[in-house]
Structure to design on (191 residues):
């Protein structure tokens, strides 16, 4: 992956519509095309297909995002332990104009079509999921699984999902576990 937990990607990466085919199997954290996108990092205009299997913080575009991801998508099937998402495993940044059609599986918890978790005061806008999202709850009875975000402390606007959502508890068509200060607008789940 580009960038890791010690050295975040801080540049501007415009994929110009390229689709990256990834076949990644690693017993490591922070896995995806990018390991960690830093707070100044911008990633845009790219797609992912293939398969990714890793540990914590696993996503198609990035394992963890502190910056901005826009105009991008994931079609890869992704499996990780926890914090697993089609675009990012966990997002401390913003995500705009994205979609996921890959199947996302967390062996334990925090799985989402776009992100496994979104931090407070950040947002996901104009994004959707059509993949199946599953948390197996290997060590937990609560599994925080959602069509867009597994755990939501930030805000969602103009999102939808119609993939199947499977887990033990804290399940939602849009978000699994939602904090009281989060705002969800113009978003829906198709049954």
């Amino acid at each position: 992956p580009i960038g890791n937990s010690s050295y975040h990607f801080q540049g501007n990466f415009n994929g110009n519509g390229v689709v990256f085919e990834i076949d990644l199997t690693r017993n490591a954290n922070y896995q995806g095309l990018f390991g960690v996108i830093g707070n100044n990092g911008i990633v845009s205009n790219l797609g992912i297909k293939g398969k990714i299997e890793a540990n914590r913080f696993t996503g198609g575009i990035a394992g963890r995002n502190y910056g901005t991801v826009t105009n991008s998508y994931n079609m890869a099937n992704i499996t990780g332990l926890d914090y697993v998402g089609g675009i990012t495993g966990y997002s401390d940044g913003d995500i705009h104009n994205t979609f996921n059609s890959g199947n996302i599986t967390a062996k334990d918890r925090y799985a989402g079509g776009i992100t496994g978790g979104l931090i407070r005061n950040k947002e996901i806008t104009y994004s959707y999921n059509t993949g199946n999202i599953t948390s197996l709850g290997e060590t937990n009875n609560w599994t925080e699984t959602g069509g867009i975000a597994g755990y939501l402390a930030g805000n969602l606007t103009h999102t939808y999902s119609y993939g199947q959502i499977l887990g033990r508890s804290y399940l939602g068509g849009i978000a699994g576990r939602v904090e009281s200060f989060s705002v969800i607008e113009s978003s829906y789940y198709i049954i």
Summary: The mean pLDDT is 97. The two ends are 36 Å apart (CA to CA). The first strand starts at residue 12 and ends at 25.
